[in-house]
Structures are given as structure tokens and as C-alpha cells.
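Appendix B, Record 12. Input sequence as logged:
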Amino acid sequence: MAKRSRKKERQGTIALCVSAGIIAGFGLGMLAGSVWLGTLLGALLGLAAGVHFTRRAKS
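Logged structural output:
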């Protein structure tokens, strides 16, 4: 696989995880009463998961 293709694949994985984190954080934030905090935490957790998945797949 070309280097460019792998880079785009990693970016797609991170973007997918961050998007899922934002959506989950928004929903849980509505239940907890703090939408902004839930959304922010969801995005950060999604970013961490995306980085973890891309680094694990690389090795």
C-alpha cells in the first residue's frame, strides 16, 4: 500500500472516532445536563481512541 494511502486511512480512522465521540458525548451530555462538557469529553476520548487504533494498527 502506498504511503499516501496509509496516511489517508489513518486520518479517516481518527476522524471517525472523533465524530463518534462527539455524537456520544452530546447524547450523554444531554442526560447529564452539561452538553458542552459532554461533547468536549466525547471528542477528546474519541481522539484518544483514534490515535490508539492507528498506532496499534501500524505496528
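The mean pLDDT is 88.
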